[in-house]
Design a protein that fits this description.
Blueprint (H helix, E strand, L loop, with lengths): L1 H11 L2 H41 L7 H11 L8
Helix pairs in contact: 2-3
Length: about 80
Protein backbone atom coordinates (compact mmCIF):
# COMPACT_ATOMS: atom_id res chain seq x y z
CA UNK A 1 0.00 0.00 0.00
CA UNK A 2 2.71 2.49 0.95
CA UNK A 3 4.71 1.59 -2.15
CA UNK A 4 1.70 2.27 -4.38
CA UNK A 5 1.09 5.62 -2.65
CA UNK A 6 4.74 6.55 -3.09
CA UNK A 7 4.57 5.65 -6.79
CA UNK A 8 1.41 7.70 -7.11
CA UNK A 9 3.08 10.78 -5.60
CA UNK A 10 6.19 10.35 -7.73
CA UNK A 11 4.05 10.13 -10.85
CA UNK A 12 1.63 12.88 -9.82
CA UNK A 13 4.39 15.36 -9.07
CA UNK A 14 5.84 15.18 -12.58
CA UNK A 15 4.71 17.73 -15.14
CA UNK A 16 2.86 15.10 -17.15
CA UNK A 17 1.33 13.65 -14.00
CA UNK A 18 0.02 17.05 -12.93
CA UNK A 19 -1.40 17.63 -16.41
CA UNK A 20 -3.17 14.24 -16.31
CA UNK A 21 -4.62 14.92 -12.86
CA UNK A 22 -5.83 18.37 -13.93
CA UNK A 23 -7.36 16.94 -17.10
CA UNK A 24 -9.18 14.20 -15.17
CA UNK A 25 -10.43 16.71 -12.61
CA UNK A 26 -11.76 19.05 -15.32
CA UNK A 27 -13.45 16.14 -17.11
CA UNK A 28 -15.18 15.02 -13.90
CA UNK A 29 -16.34 18.55 -13.11
CA UNK A 30 -17.71 18.84 -16.65
CA UNK A 31 -19.64 15.57 -16.33
CA UNK A 32 -21.06 16.70 -12.99
CA UNK A 33 -22.16 20.04 -14.45
CA UNK A 34 -23.90 18.39 -17.39
CA UNK A 35 -25.71 15.99 -15.06
CA UNK A 36 -26.76 18.81 -12.74
CA UNK A 37 -27.92 20.97 -15.63
CA UNK A 38 -29.93 18.11 -17.12
CA UNK A 39 -31.61 17.39 -13.78
CA UNK A 40 -32.35 21.08 -13.22
CA UNK A 41 -33.81 21.38 -16.71
CA UNK A 42 -36.12 18.39 -16.04
CA UNK A 43 -37.26 19.84 -12.70
CA UNK A 44 -37.90 23.25 -14.28
CA UNK A 45 -39.90 21.60 -17.03
CA UNK A 46 -42.05 19.68 -14.56
CA UNK A 47 -42.68 22.73 -12.39
CA UNK A 48 -43.53 24.86 -15.42
CA UNK A 49 -45.99 22.30 -16.73
CA UNK A 50 -47.69 21.98 -13.33
CA UNK A 51 -47.84 25.76 -12.96
CA UNK A 52 -49.36 26.18 -16.42
CA UNK A 53 -51.86 23.38 -15.81
CA UNK A 54 -53.03 24.85 -12.49
CA UNK A 55 -52.95 28.51 -13.55
CA UNK A 56 -54.86 27.92 -16.79
CA UNK A 57 -57.31 25.50 -15.13
CA UNK A 58 -56.89 23.09 -18.04
CA UNK A 59 -59.86 20.80 -18.54
CA UNK A 60 -59.18 19.84 -22.14
CA UNK A 61 -55.92 17.93 -21.51
CA UNK A 62 -54.42 15.87 -18.71
CA UNK A 63 -51.48 16.93 -16.58
CA UNK A 64 -49.40 14.20 -18.24
CA UNK A 65 -50.16 15.71 -21.65
CA UNK A 66 -49.17 19.16 -20.39
CA UNK A 67 -45.89 17.73 -19.04
CA UNK A 68 -45.19 16.08 -22.41
CA UNK A 69 -45.89 19.39 -24.15
CA UNK A 70 -43.38 21.16 -21.91
CA UNK A 71 -40.82 18.39 -22.39
CA UNK A 72 -40.98 19.16 -26.10
CA UNK A 73 -40.75 22.92 -25.48
CA UNK A 74 -37.72 22.45 -23.22
CA UNK A 75 -36.22 19.86 -25.61
CA UNK A 76 -35.52 17.43 -22.76
CA UNK A 77 -34.43 14.67 -25.11
CA UNK A 78 -31.64 16.77 -26.60
CA UNK A 79 -28.10 16.80 -25.27
CA UNK A 80 -26.97 19.88 -23.36
CA UNK A 81 -23.71 21.36 -24.62
Amino acid sequence: MILNLKQFYETALTEQGMANLFHNMCAEVGRSLITSTTEFKAALCLLSACHSYILNDRKDISLDDEIKRYEELFALGEEIR
